[in-house]
Amino acid sequence: MTFASSSLLLLAAGAVSAHGQSWPKPPKFRVVALAERASGDHQKFVDVAKIYLNKLAAENDFAVDYISGTGRVDEEFLAQYKLFIQLNHPPYHWTPIALVALLYLAVVGSVNAFMLYYWLVHNMDVTKSMLIALVTPVVAVVLGMVVLGEDLSWRTVAGGVMIMAGVRFVTRISLSSR
What we know:
The chain has helices at 3-18, 41-60, 75-78, 96-123, 126-148, 154-176, and strands at residues 30-34, 63-67, 83-86. The protein is mainly alpha-helical. It folds into three domains: 27-91, no CATH class; 93-123; 125-178. The protein has a three-stranded parallel sheet, covered by helices on one side. Helix 4 packs antiparallel against helix 5. It is elongated and about 75 Å long.
């Protein structure tokens, strides 16, 4: 390639660039959206959401990749994305152990807890049985730290302190009114 032909090539590239026809630049980041085929009104939601996401991506210089299943989703696949969006209902795969877990949560976590709470309200002072609902989040946070090794933020500590102060305040008023 001669100097004249390479100069002409650079000049042509500059002219194309000056008219807004520059080479496409890579997006700032990538988003993956799970958009499985849905039925009924939910498919209309998915279709409108895709239009909205594509418009948002064009305006904010990011790319959206749509997938129709979770088969290839693993740590390596997700590492190329900054955001994962699920446009459909969660892809449930009901195994026998999942059904047993669901039944256990329904019976023990809901039915028994509901009956026990009303037994407490009937047999204890209402202000004391009401406190169970307030203390439950604090117990859940402590169990999360101990069992799962979750981190504890200052906001969580502040919330726990406020809950416990409220519990103390209610029990103190309850005791002094007797």
